[in-house]
Amino acid sequence: MLVLGIESSCDDTAAAVWDDGTVRSNVVSSQTDLHEEYGGVVPELASRDHQRLIVPVVHRALDDASVEPSALDAVAVTHGPGLPGSLLVGLSFAKAFARGLDLPLIGMNHLEGHVYSVDLEPPAPERPFLCLVVSGGHTELVHVDENFHHDVLGRTRDDAAGEAFDKVAQLFGLGYPGGPAIDRHAEAGDPEFHDFPRTRLDDLDFSFSGLKTSVLYYLRDRSDAERTRLLGDHLDDLCASVQAAVVDVLVDALRRAVNETGAEHVAVVGGVAANSSLRQRVEALGREEGVGVSVPDPAYCMDNAAMIAQAGAQRLAAGHTSSPTLDADSNLQL
Ligand code: KG4
Ligand code: ZN
Q1: Which-ligand-closest: CA of 176?
Q2: N or C: which end of the chain has fewer CB within 10 A?
Q3: Is the CB of 176 under 6 A from ligand 1?
């Protein structure tokens, strides 16, 4: 079965061709440069750029896969959550494309796409498993069973983990998106340079706004000369210290969830799952707790359409399709 996946929920225009478990093509056109000077995604600019890119990106995905549109069996597209203007570009294109070729349309939840990115590389984890979804807009700890039931055990009460990285990176003058830059700097830094706060809640919820505020005060309460010295001589150490605070909180919650639920397999997905320290710590958690671990290749952690096609194919196999009148839902929940 050949499925075309389309993703445009935020600032990446993406299309992929999925062929019975094999990713034949995976094209992502990232708008990072467009938004960098603003320190975050500007919705109007994002939707205009999706409009410019959606046709060439889909053509590239079909060309890379050497697949003619007439050979496709279905179109899977993200219809939420995300920026309304961005979602509408991918969704409108997919609806027209599917209609023109008389193909089934499968509207996908972007977060479900991240969850099922674990199945893109064999071996796929057995169900049920615990999944930590960590991205720029979401931090959710989810129990996943074999029937697309997603039981949310915990979620962030304020900032998402990726948002924490992005906001702190901005305070450090590292541009947007901040996660990859912090990861790079942290490699050479001392994670114990400064003890930034780790907010641990009684349940499995998360909170990262205190970390961002603490970094803000740490820099604000110093003289200009001292701040310049710290951001010059100790940028790597500061990045490593912030990264350690975020990763500690995530791994700690995952460990508690494993102990509370008796889960035998854990997965970490979403853009923040590309973080090198988080990846190492989750692998270590697997060994320590005796549970299986799935962390997708970094290319499948970041927003992409292969995960949308993968999840869409599973939905289609279970008999799910969407109406041609499907709407975008910017607040769609898991
Ligand atoms: O899943 P994603 O590509 O888009 C959303 O659905 O939000 O995630 C993007 C987020 C951004 O906040 C970015 O800073 C973060 O993932 N990120 C990272 C790394 N790579 C991307 N955070 C920490 N370390 C990384 N290596
Ligand atoms: Zn995402």
Answers
A1: 1
A2: N
A3: no
Encoded tokens for 282: 């989750």
pLDDT at site 147: 84
Give the dihedral sign, CA 190/191/192/194. positive
So what's the pLDDT on residue 110? 98
The pairs formed by 123-129 with CB atoms below 8 angstroms and a separation of 24 or more are: 125/265, 125/267, 125/292, 125/294, 126/264, 126/265, 126/292, 128/263, 128/265, 129/263, 129/264, 129/265, 129/266, 129/267, 129/292, 129/294
Name the nearest CA neighbour of 188 among 243, 246, 226, 268: 243
- CA–chain centroid gap for 14, Å, is 13
Q: For 204, phi and psi rounded to 5 degrees?
A: -100, 20
- In angstroms, the CA 332 to CA 109 distance is 7
The confidence band for 33, taking pLDDT boundaries of 50, 70 and 90, is confident
Task: Extract the tokens encoding 198.
Answer: 């780790």
Which of 86, 109, 135 has the most ligand 1 atoms within 8 A of CB, as the residue to mutate? 135
Q: φ, ψ for residue 188 (rounded to 5)?
A: -100, 10
The highest-level CATH class for domain 126-295 is: alpha beta
Q: Ligand 1 centroid vs 272 CA: distance in angstroms?
A: 4
User: What's the pTM?
Assistant: 0.96
Q: Which of 163, 165, 281 to mutate to test the pocket of ligand 1 (most atoms within 8 A of CB)?
A: 165
Ligand 1 proximity of 111 Cβ (cutoff 6 Å): no
Average pLDDT along the chain: 97
Residue spans in the chain of domains classed CATH 3.30.420.40: 2-116+300-317, 126-295
Closest ligand to residue 170's CA = 1
**Candidate from 272, 275, 276, 304 with most ligand 1 atoms within 8 A of CB, to mutate:** 272
Q: Is 3.90.950.10 the CATH classification of the domain at 2-116+300-317?
A: no
The residue whose two tokens read 């700890």 is 141
